[in-house]
Amino acid sequence: MSDREHILYLEHLTVSFDGFKALDALTLYVEPGELRCIIGPNGAGKTTMMDVVTGKTKPDSGTAWFGRQLDLLQMNEPDIARAGIGRKFQKPTVFEYLNVFENLELALAGPRSFWQVLRARLSGEQRDKIERVLETIGLAEKRTTLARTLAHGQKQWLEIGMLLMQEPELLLIDEPVAGMTPQETERTAELMLSLAGKHSVVVVEHDMEFVRSIARRVTVLHEGRVLAEGSMDDVQNDQRVIEVYLGA
Amino acid sequence: MLSSRYVPAPLREDRGGLILLGLLAIAAVLLPVLALVVPEGSAFHLSPYALTLIGKYLCYAMLALAVDLIWGYCGILSLGHAAFFSLGGYAMGMYLMRQIGSRGVYGDPVLPDFMVFLNWKSLPWFWYGFNHFWFAALMMVLVPGVLALVFGWLAFRSRVTGVYLSIMTQALSYALMLAFFRNDMGFGGNNGFTDFKEILGFDLHLNRVRVTLVVATILALAASYVFSRYLLTSRAGRVIRAVRDAESRTRFLGYPVESYKLWIFVMSAVIAGIAGALYVPQVGIINPGEFAPINSIEVVIWVAVGGRATLFGAALGAIVVNYAKTYFTGAFPEIWLYALGALFILVTLFLPRGITGLVRSSKEQA
Q1: What is the rounded distance in angstroms from the CA atom of residue B309 to the CA atom of residue B252?
Q2: R_g (Cα) of chain B, nearest Å
Q3: What is d(CA A102, CA B232) in angstroms, rounded to the nearest whole number?
Q4: pLDDT (tens digit, 9 = 90+) per residue, B165-202?
Q5: In whole angstroms, what is the distance from residue A191 CA to residue A156 CA?
Q6: Alpha-carbon gap: B260 to the closest alpha carbon of chain A (Å)
Q7: What percent of chain B has pLDDT over 70?
Q8: Among candidates B357, B364, B279, which has minimal Cα distance to B66?
Q9: Are B173 and B79 in contact (CB under 8 A)?
Q10: CB-hemisphere CA count at 13 Å for A188?
Q11: How far, in Å, CA of A197 to CA of A183, rounded?
């Protein structure tokens, strides 16, 4: 199947917890610059798949490669994050008493040890980079606002911005629009579309309207396997998908 | 208002801090005049008693600053900072004891009185060097600093946080108190050190020496304030606040959270130690009672009353609460502890951001 260059290769991944197979020989490829939505009923293995990619869970069998060079199963979580895979969790965690700009500043790649960070100053280039991310996530006007006073949706965007500061090649985003207002959802859809191309983006989401508005390619998971893959229309008309998920 | 051009970066947008530094500058000029120039009969004359009280409050303000640095900004509630304060004080006390020389009651040129009384024949090894001020000064910084480094390294590395850490710091202070109470520790047992004569060759009972010590305390407090601001306005300072608000998120961004906590803890302990060292020659005594767990808890109350995570509020809180303490313990000695307890409860309930929270705008906070 994969003679083309992919950014993520997951092949025959199996993860079981106490006999329950969270992933059952899952095989999935993601192309560079692609925006991929993953849907599926609860327990389909969406979160477990992300856990394997980010190194949180080790599979019983199978392979997971990031590009053709990096074997994700041989790497730990910080290594994977540094190699260019960013993950956004469902619940936003930003630094409440720092402002938007400072939140992005701390996410900037660079020195991390106390004595180096004590003397660190922003270079013009780094400042520009923060400004670009502020534009991308639409919070340029809010740069000096304390993060705690942001609306829920804005906090989610800020956290995506913090991921972008580390220039990940692959972004894994878990339920980005949960709890958002319709306007925020719309803005988030625009944000996702603007990220695609520059990054590969994998979005796990329940909100079908949202998925329809952004997805070019949808993967349906069911019981730890890929049930169907294709455009939203293809998937929605697939008889098996209707049975297990959409039609139910 | 001052133009921001003339203000160093760490103090920009720090109105409260500039006010504090301004008040300290005024005090540094005014106190010597009131104590030395204004004649004794005048209503404006500052008595040695009042001068000593002010010096004491300023040392407490420095201690409160140290506690606010780690509690207010890094979320580490230390209930053991009196220990670092006392160790700095003991280092200074050892120097002052050696300065007494043969003027002690027993007239021994080397051994302090309590050692002669205990029938000791020679100076214990850990007293060597304390006849030199530079050595004692080094110890005032090193002893609290190294203790904080070792204690913090063990505690933070084991991920001890929250109330467990607070209890451990209380235990640390209590253990040191019990140790210093023992005569055979070589620190004067329950009497501690007193009856000091000279510092750097100057008679401690002279008014101008007292004034100099108060001015030195003012300078030390101002320097600690500016240093703390420098630290907190650096990127490391922002990481420290990030640790306070979302520790695991900070770790996830790749920051070694434990090492940030450790270094800020050490810096805070050193400030507390210097405060203690300045305290001892002014009050004229240091004994193991200074290690008492209640002392560390009182510091936390000063910080809470003044306003946590402001620095200047902590300094102000220390001065206000201690002035109240002096007044109440003189006027109504039996109700002071109730008044202190009530103050803490009232502030917690009605002024969660302390006295300074009353005048601070929401933008300035944290």
Answers
A1: 25
A2: 21
A3: 13
A4: 999 999 999 999 999 999 999 999 999 999 999 999 99
A5: 11
A6: 6
A7: 97
A8: B279
A9: yes
A10: 29
A11: 24
Residue type, A119: R
Share of chain B above pLDDT 90, in %: 82
Please tell me the distance in Å from B242's CA to the nearest CA on chain A. Answer: 6
Residue A168 near residue A195 (C-beta atoms within 8 A):
no
Assembly ipTM? 0.89
Determine which helix (DSSP H) or strand (DSSP E) holds A182, and give its type and residue range: helix A182-195
Q: How many residues does chain A have?
A: 248
Query: pLDDT (tens digit, 9 = 90+) per residue, A23-77?
Result: 999 999 999 999 999 998 888 889 899 999 999 899 999 999 999 899 999 998 8
Q: Which residue has the tokens 């640790």?
A: B243
* pLDDT at A247 > cutoff 60: no
Please, which contacts does A147-152 make with residues 24 or more away whose CB atoms are closer than 8 Å? A147/A94, A147/A95, A147/A96, A147/A97, A147/A98, A147/A99, A147/A100, A147/A103, A148/A96, A148/A97, A150/A94, A150/A100, A151/A184, A152/A92, A152/A179, A152/A180, A152/A184
A118 vs B235: CB contact, 8 Å cut-off?
A: yes
* Chain A hits for B236, Cβ within 8 Å: 114, 117-118, 120
Tell me the C-alpha distance between A171 and A203, whole Å.
Answer: 8
The pTM (predicted TM-score) of the whole model is 0.89
Residue in A with minimal Cα distance to B263: A114
pLDDT of A1 > 50? The answer is no
Is 50 exceeded by the pLDDT of residue B1? Answer: no
3-state secondary structure of A71: strand
Nearest alpha-carbon partner for A108 in A87, A131, A76: A131
Which residues contact residue B228 at a Cβ distance below 8 angstroms, ignoring those fewer than 6 apart? B65, B69, B271, B311
pLDDT beyond 60 at A190: yes
Average pLDDT value for residue range A134-152: 95
Q: Compute the average pLDDT of residues B84-107.
A: 96
Collect all residues of chain A within an 8 Å Cβ-Cβ radius of residue B249: 93-95
Whether A185 shows a pLDDT value over 80: the answer reads yes
A20-30: strand order across its sheet: A20-30, A8-17, A61-66, A70-71
Question: Quick one: closest CA in B to A166, which residue?
Answer: B253
pLDDT tens digits along B61-73: 999 999 999 999 9
Residue with tokens 């965007």: A157
The answer to whether the beta carbons of residues B276 and B106 sit under 8 Å apart is no
Residues A130, A88 contacting (CB under 8 angstroms) = no
Is residue B156 scored above 50 in pLDDT?
A: yes
Nearest to B246 among A95, A119, A146 (CB): A95
For residue B204, what are its two tokens?
Answer: 């401690």
Q: Point out the residue among B238, B241, B246 whose CB comes nearest to the CB of A93.
A: B246
In this complex, is the C-beta atom of B245 within 8 Å of any C-beta atom belonging to chain A? yes
Q: Could you tell me if A98 lies within 8 Å of chain B, comparing CB atoms?
A: yes
Tokens of residue B350, six digits: 């009605």
Q: What is the DSSP string of B141-163?
A: HHHHHHHHHHHHHHHHHTT--HH
Q: Which of B253, B258, B262, B363 to mutate to test the interface with A (most CBs of A within 10 A)?
A: B253
Q: Which residues of A fall within a CB distance of 8 Å from B263?
A: 114-115
